[in-house]
Specification:
3 helices, two-stranded antiparallel ribbon, 231 residues, alpha+beta, binds zinc ion
Amino acid sequence: MGGKEEEFLKSEVRDVQIPFGGRNFMRLQLYFPLQKPYFITQFFGPSQLPIYKQLGMLGHNGLDCASPRGKPVLASHDGQVVYAGQDGNEGYGVVIRTLTTFEYNGQEMFFKTLYWHLLANIPVRVGQRVRIGDIVGYADSTGLSTGDHLHFGLKPQYQGANEWTWFNAEQNNGYFGGIDPEPYLIKDKRFSNRNTDYMSSYEIKTGLQMLAEDIERLARSISNYLRRIKK
Ligand SMILES: [Zn+2]
């Protein structure tokens, strides 16, 4: 990322103080983890899809953003890499935790952000400090995923008795501790309206193109299957 862009990111993220119970808390602010154009394919929230029931969840626990293979994934805040590697479903991901606490339901909490379905060559390692806008991975479709996209998640965390013990504040909320990242994203035109405002016609076209590619892939696998069963 160029110097100018980086400066722009930092100027967007200003400290915001929230008075609460006679104290001032900082408000967590996240930068969108992809450069434009991006296209949100699934928001956080309840879903009837059977996959979530199988996973023991109420619905989708993050934001899904269509993102072509290899597109850089950016740290949405300053922090430390606390996970970089493979999950149980052969998906690659990175987790970054904030270095300081922020307000969450009237309490001081750390937060971690999660980035999944990445390419295997992850450019950061556990323990590394990252700044907002740093490249932490590249989009792909590894793990439980049907097409190239980034899954972006957010979980409030608190520390246990030891430096290395951490707990999700909302672990039993039906989303494995995940909360909706959208209210924490730095507001600009992209998020003033969930449906249209943040999508330029170029972004819609990119989204449609990705859908077309998915359909093409599906058509190919159906024709392969038909060819196989004819033999
Ligand atoms: Zn997702």
